[in-house]
C-alpha cells in the first residue's frame, strides 16, 4: 500500500470484500434505521409510547379478549401483530416500542461517549508522545490512575456520585439521571483506551525523517503535531473507533442493568435487561429480545473493528498497541525496540497526506526528505567508484579497506572495525 493511500479507503475496501463485513453493516443499518424510526412505529403502529403503562388494558387475540398483564402478573407474550408485536413487560408497556426507543438512547450514549473519548484521548496521546518529558509524565500518571480502577466499579462510583446533583461544567450543566450524564461518565472512562495507544504511536512517528525535516525547517511543536503527526495517526484512530464504540455500548448496558446508568423508567437495552431478568422464567422474551439486539450490535461492531484493522494493516501486524504507554516518562524507548513493540516493521511507512495537499500547503517536508535520500545514494555510488579505481595494493575491490568501507556504505551494521 502506497504512502499516500488513505486508511479510510483501505478500511472500506476490506469491509466490502468480506461477506461477514457486509452482513455486519447490514445488521447495523437495520438496528440504527429501526431505532430512528421509533416514533413512527409508536404513533402509527403500536399507538402507545415507551413510558405508558397498560396494566388494566385488554387486547383482542384470536377473537378473545386477553389482558395485557394477567392477574398472576405474567405479561402478554409476542402477538406478531401491530400492537404488542414483541409482547408487554410487567407494567403493560409495549416491548417493541421500548426496544426501539431504548436503541435510540443506547446508540446516542455510545456515539457521544465515543466522541468524547476520541477528542480528549487523541489530544492527550499526541501531547504526551510528542512533547515527552514533564508533560508526558503528568499525562501518563493521570492515565495510570484511570487505568487502575475497574471499569464497572469506576462507572458505578461516578454514576452514583452524580445521580442527584448532576455536573456543572460552567458553560454546560448536565442534570443527574440524564442520559448525557451516562455518556459523559463512559466517555471519561474510555479516554485511557485511546490515549495510551496513541502515545505509543506518536513516540514512533516523532522520530521519522519527515517529522525531523519539519522541525529542521523551523516549524513549532503545534504545527508539527497538527500537520505532520495528526494525519499519520488517522489510521490508528480509525482502528480504535469501532473498538471504543463497542466497549461504550457494552458498558452502558452494564451500568444501566446495575442501576448506575440510564435510570428507570427511561428505556435502554440495559434497563430492559434489568426488567426482564426479574421475570426470566415466566416471560423469557423480556430478556431474550433486548439481549439479542445488544449481542448482534456488539458482535457486528467487533467484526467491523477486525476488518478495519486488517485493511489498514494488511501484513497482519497490529498498528495499535494495547500497552501504548510503556516506556519512560522522560523519553521513548530506542526507535527499533519501540517499533517492534508497536508492531511496525522498520520498512513500513506510515500513512501520509497526499502530495497535492502537502504541496498546496507549501511545506515540502517530504520533498526535502526525498532530496536528502537522493544525495545520500549519490555519495555512496561515488565512494564505491573511488574504491574500485584505487590502484594501491591491498586497497582494490578485495583489499582490507574495501572490505571495511563497502559494508558501511551498503548499510551493513556488522561491518568490521
Topology readout:
Layout: H1 7-17, H2 19-36, H3 38-46, E1 58-61, E2 64-67, H4 95-131, H5 133-148, H6 151-161, E3 167-168, E4 173-174, H7 179-189, H8 191-205, H9 209-216, H10 221-232, H11 234-258, H12 269-277, H13 285-312, H14 335-342, H15 355-361, H16 365-388, H17 400-409
Helix pairs in contact: 1-2, 1-13, 2-4, 2-13, 3-4, 4-5, 4-7, 4-8, 4-10, 4-11, 4-12, 5-8, 6-7, 6-11, 8-11, 8-14, 9-10, 9-16, 11-12, 11-13, 12-13, 16-17
Radius of gyration: 29 Å
Ends apart, CA distance between termini: 38 Å
Instruction: Give the count of helical stretches.
Output: 17
Query: Helix content range of the residues, please?
Result: 55-70%
Total beta strands: 4
Task: Please indicate the percent range of residues in DSSP E strands (runs of 2 or more).
Answer: under 5%
The oligomeric state is single chain
User: What's the average pLDDT?
Assistant: 79
Output the structural class.
mainly alpha
**Biggest sheet: strand arrangement:** 1-2
- Helix-strand pattern: HHHEEHHHEEHHHHHHHHHHH
Amino acid at each position: 500500500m502506497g504512502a499516500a493511500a488513505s486508511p479510510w479507503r483501505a478500511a472500506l475496501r476490506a469491509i466490502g470484500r468480506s461477506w461477514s463485513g457486509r452482513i455486519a453493516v447490514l445488521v447495523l443499518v437495520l438496528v440504527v434505521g429501526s431505532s430512528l424510526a421509533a416514533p413512527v412505529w409508536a404513533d402509527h403502529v403500536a399507538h402507545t409510547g415507551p413510558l405508558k403503562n397498560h396494566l388494566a388494558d385488554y387486547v383482542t387475540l384470536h377473537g378473545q379478549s386477553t389482558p395485557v398483564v394477567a392477574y398472576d402478573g405474567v405479561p402478554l407474550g409476542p402477538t406478531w401483530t401491530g400492537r404488542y408485536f414483541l409482547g408487554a413487560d410487567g407494567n403493560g408497556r409495549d416491548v417493541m416500542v421500548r426496544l426501539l426507543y431504548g436503541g435510540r438512547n443506547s446508540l446516542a450514549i455510545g456515539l457521544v461517549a465515543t466522541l468524547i473519548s476520541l477528542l480528549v484521548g487523541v489530544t492527550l496521546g499526541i501531547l504526551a508522545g510528542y512533547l515527552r518529558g514533564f508533560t508526558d509524565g503528568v499525562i501518563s500518571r493521570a492515565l495510570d490512575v484511570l487505568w487502575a480502577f475497574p471499569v464497572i466499579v469506576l462507572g458505578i462510583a461516578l454514576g452514583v456520585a452524580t445521580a442527584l446533583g448532576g455536573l456543572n461544567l460552567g458553560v454546560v450543566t448536565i442534570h443527574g439521571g440524564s442520559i448525557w450524564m451516562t455518556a459523559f461518565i463512559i466517555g471519561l472512562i474510555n479516554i485511557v483506551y485511546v490515549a495510551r495507544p496513541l502515545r505509543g504511536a506518536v513516540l514512533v512517528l516523532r522520530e521519522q525523517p519527515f517529522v525531523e525535516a519539519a522541525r529542521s525547517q523551523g516549524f513549532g511543536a503545534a504545527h508539527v503535531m497538527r500537520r505532520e503527526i495528526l494525519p499519520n495517526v488517522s489510521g490508528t484512530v480509525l482502528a480504535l473507533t469501532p473498538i471504543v464504540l463497542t466497549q461504550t455500548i457494552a458498558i452502558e448496558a452494564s451500568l444501566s442493568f446495575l442501576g448506575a446508568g440510564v435510570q428507570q423508567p427511561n428505556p435502554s437495552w440495559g434497563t430492559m435487561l434489568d426488567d426482564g431478568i426479574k421475570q426470566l422464567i415466566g416471560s423469557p422474551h423480556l430478556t431474550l429480545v433486548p439481549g439479542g439486539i445488544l449481542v448482534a450490535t456488539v458482535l457486528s461492531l467487533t467484526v467491523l473493528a477486525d476488518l478495519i484493522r486488517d485493511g489498514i494493516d494488511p501484513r497482519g501486524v497490529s498498528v495499535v498497541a494495547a500497552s501504548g504507554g510503556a516506556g519512560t516518562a522522560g523519553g521513548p524507548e530506542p526507535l527499533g525496540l519501540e517499533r517492534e513493540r508497536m508492531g511496525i516493521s522498520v520498512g513500513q511507512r506510515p500513512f501520509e497526506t497526499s502530495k497535492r495537499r502537502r504541496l498546496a500547503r507549501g511545506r515540502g517536508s517530504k520533498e526535502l526528505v526525498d532530496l536528502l535520500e537522493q544525495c545520500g545514494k549519490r555519495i555512496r555510488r561515488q565512494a564505491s567508484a573511488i574504491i574500485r579505481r584505487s590502484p594501491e595494493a591491498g586497497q582494490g575491490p578485495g583489499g582490507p579497506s574495501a572490505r571495511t568501507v563497502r559494508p558501511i556504505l551498503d548499510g551493513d551494521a556488522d561491518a568490521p572495525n
